[in-house]
Design goal:
Elements lengths: L3 H9 L5 E2 L4 E4 L17 E6 L2 E6 L5 E4 L7 H9 L4 H15 L4 H5 L18 E2 H10 L8 H12 L10 E2 L10 E8 L2 E9 L8 E4 L17 E5 L2 H7 L2 E2 L7 H8 L4 E4 L7 H11 L2 E3 L10 H8 L1 H10 L1 E2 L2 H13 L2
Parallel strand pairs: 11-12, 11-13, 13-14
Antiparallel strand pairs: 1-2, 2-3, 3-4, 4-5, 6-7, 8-9, 9-10, 14-15
Helix pairs in contact: 7-10, 9-12, 10-11
Bound molecules: zinc ion (ZN).
Zinc ion binds next to loops.
Length: 344
């Protein structure tokens, strides 16, 4: 019963394989060329099964993926399945099978095999960072003749102009001048309520680059603010996009496997909204690979990203238009991708 996924995987293994000791079966690894390594010819890929659980390990390129009954099929595991020759339909069927098996496994049993935890070290913000909240308190203590520093006025104006909710999101300022930080708004990057990095956006067009950042690889912005009972999560490219509709951001148009995994762990429909510049294409391709929904909202022809649309049309309209324009069929996503990016 619980070993149905294990059975399907074993059927996909190459005919040329060796069963060794300790439950490992070895064969030529199927992952390496997908990870910029030369193909394996020495049987360095191995699979171990145990009561329905499956672990794959490649001793050539180092790729690892595993599945435990009761858990979802991770992105890495789904990729492995397709490299083993499973077609889209089979992968989809196994994803549903994993959901079905979840009902049969007691939560206590699952706790014995914890999910691989993603950890980030706490990291301080730039020197002498002061939050907007602290500035508000400070200004309230001053007399009417106090001249509010120009950079504070500019920063508040900038965030206001981008229609971000000050109550919900924190911003910082510093007078530290390295990297022009004193002319940037600092957005703290939280992970499990701890600051693990930041990005600093310049509010003056002549300050380049637009963003100065320091954060861990694979970081997904705004995971902390996702509500536990939400039916979907919107995946955007930049933090201002994410803040304007309470979605998550990838900090660009590339998505690493670990980022996919973190977003999948939210266990809800994932809706990707790519930017309409050319780099957005890459994100669409990865979304198809991850089995995510992609939305091509009506405003995409005239607005460059979600934040731009929210500034013009408001949050509610933008969210509704994202939901209305979502596509799950790979074919339709491909068609709309062509239409959006080939006309630019
Ligand atoms: Zn490999």
């Amino acid at each position: 019963m619980l070993d149905s996924i294990q059975q399907s995987v074993l059927q996909l293994l190459p005919a040329r394989r060796k069963t060794g000791q300790n439950g490992w079966t070895s064969f030529n690894a199927v992952c390496c060329p997908h990870n910029s390594e030369s193909a394996d010819t020495r049987g360095r890929g191995g699979i171990k099964t145990n009561a329905g659980a499956v672990s794959y390990h490649c001793f050539n390129c180092g790729y690892k993926a595993s599945y435990v009954p009761g858990r979802h099929l991770t992105f890495k595991f789904r990729k492995l399945l397709s490299w083993l020759g499973a077609d889209d339909l089979t992968v989809r069927r196994l994803v549903i099978e994993a959901v079905r098996l979840k009902e049969l496994v007691a939560p206590e049993e699952l706790e014995q095999v914890p999910e691989e935890e993603i950890k980030y070290e706490a990291k301080p913000l730039p020197k002498s960072s002061v939050s907007f909240d602290e500035w508000t308190t400070y200004l309230a203590m001053q007399g009417n003749d106090y001249l509010v520093p120009d950079r504070v006025v500019r920063a508040v104006h900038y965030v206001n102009h981008r229609k971000i909710d000050f109550q919900k999101y924190k911003f910082y300022l510093t007078d530290y001048e390295a990297y022009n930080l004193h002319r940037r708004i600092i957005i703290p990057y939280y992970y499990k309520n701890k600051i693990v990095g930041y990005t600093a956006r310049s509010w003056e067009p002549d300050v380049k680059p637009k963003y100065w950042s320091s954060y861990p690889a694979d970081f997904v912005f705004n995971l902390d603010n996702q509500l536990p009972d939400s039916k979907f999560v919107v995946v955007c490219e930049g933090p201002f996009d994410a803040m304007s509709i309470d979605g998550v951001a990838l900090n660009g148009s590339e998505v690493s496997d670990t980022q996919v995994e973190q977003i999948d762990r939210l266990r809800r429909e994932v809706i990707v909204v790519p930017d309409s510049d050319r780099a957005g294409r890459k994100l669409v391709d990865r979304a198809i690979e991850a089995g995510w929904t992609v939305s091509f909202p009506v405003w995409q022809e005239s607005c460059k990203d979600i934040n731009d649309a929210v500034v013009r049309y408001g949050e509610l309209f933008v969210l509704k238009s994202i939901l209305a324009a979502r596509e799950t069929s790979k074919l339709k996503i491909e068609l709309k991708k062509k239409r959006l990016y080939n006309t630019r």
